[in-house]
């Protein structure tokens, strides 16, 4: 029987560096960053999720040992991203190889979506209450594109002016969020909007004390499911494990070697609880609400402050104004009161200068 479809040959060009592959998607993404001056707009142009574009660039930089994209911090000229000389050189080498192998000029696959501006972008820590808050906004006709990147990358997204709002909970030993931000951010580029409090603790299939859990993790009796680097939960967990290791006379630097499951990372609190519920790990650090939704035991660690970082240049935009209004609304506060392990703070919605 004859084929009923036409077969079209297509040649793909790839460059290899010690096992790492430089392909058309990566080069198209870098070209889009150069064109639009923004990782967010570049991601849309090549059809990638914002978080996936970040990961693509980060993996390439790690494998090649050079920075390909650098931040352009907010200010009078605005924020964004731009290629480094190494990034431009990588594009040039790929284009030259493509021309040599195919006899044609390389045409990056860029969609018109790169020119489109979404109504609102949330980038930062995953939070169950934030999901509900964005749902309230959708009901009011305000749509936010959500990217669960973790607190540290959320701060970076604000510096790059890639995000309108970043949810963060960064613990430094001196407190949450403000000490870290005042040591990190240039003065005046962003403001901190006070959020609410949420209860963080260990989820497990059997009820255990905090001491039993920490000692069990360090001694290798309990298997852990971790959170990815750059999340506020990971910072808290690393601090807890380092203190416990020292208590047992163990060098904290050995934690990745001696803790079972330390390299297994989950992206959200719900994913942590799911891994434990399925028996793939014994314990994980997550929110009380996630534990209850999966029928797990919960051992409290601390109440933490969950706040929102916003670029000063976005404060008067409609998405941010609507976000702030919803955050302080009676409707959202009633939602918080129904979520286990959440409570409204006395200063929820207050705007603090950094």
Automatic annotation (TrEMBL):
<dbReference type="GO" id="GO:0003700">
    <property type="term" value="F:DNA-binding transcription factor activity"/>
</dbReference>
<protein>
    <submittedName>
        <fullName>Molybdate-binding protein, periplasmic component</fullName>
    </submittedName>
</protein>
<dbReference type="Pfam" id="PF00126">
    <property type="entry name" value="HTH_1"/>
</dbReference>
<dbReference type="Pfam" id="PF12727">
    <property type="entry name" value="PBP_like"/>
</dbReference>
<dbReference type="InterPro" id="IPR000847">
    <property type="entry name" value="LysR_HTH_N"/>
</dbReference>
<dbReference type="InterPro" id="IPR024370">
    <property type="entry name" value="PBP_domain"/>
</dbReference>
<feature type="domain" description="HTH lysR-type">
    <location>
        <begin position="28"/>
        <end position="88"/>
    </location>
</feature>
<feature type="domain" description="PBP">
    <location>
        <begin position="140"/>
        <end position="327"/>
    </location>
</feature>
<dbReference type="InterPro" id="IPR036388">
    <property type="entry name" value="WH-like_DNA-bd_sf"/>
</dbReference>
<dbReference type="InterPro" id="IPR036390">
    <property type="entry name" value="WH_DNA-bd_sf"/>
</dbReference>
